[in-house]
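FORM 7B: Structural annotation worksheet

SECTION A. Query
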Amino acid sequence: MPTLVVAGHGMVAHRLVEAVRAEDPQGTWHVVVLSEEPRPAYDRVALTSYVDTWDPATLALPGSDYAGDAHVDLRLGELAVSVDRDAKTVTTASGDVVSYDALVLATGSRPFVPPVPGHDLDGCFVYRTIE
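SECTION B. Predicted structure
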């Protein structure tokens, strides 16, 4: 069975996995999702509303834990740290080596911090994740 490795589990990665599974209902592909974060994909765009409730469940994307889908292996808290394109493997921070037939790097973005005076002082931060 061929394996698709997805490095990252933001909104786009989740939509990709949904699309792959929708197009492959027989499960000919095994999908491994490596997520640096300790929780399944959530709506990062709505992070500003998170402070209204401080409830991460309000941001959860439906189905992002892939419960009951034996063809998706979601590995939370498992950061991809290197890719060996010749060997077609991804190594994780824990030292696990995952072989792939196809690889998608969906690692997201970093917030732009304007170079204004004081942007690096204590108490000044940007947010891009619930943590």
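SECTION C. Observations
The chain has a mean pLDDT of 92. Residues 40 and 65 are 6 Å apart (CA to CA).

SECTION D. Sign-off
Analyst initials: ____
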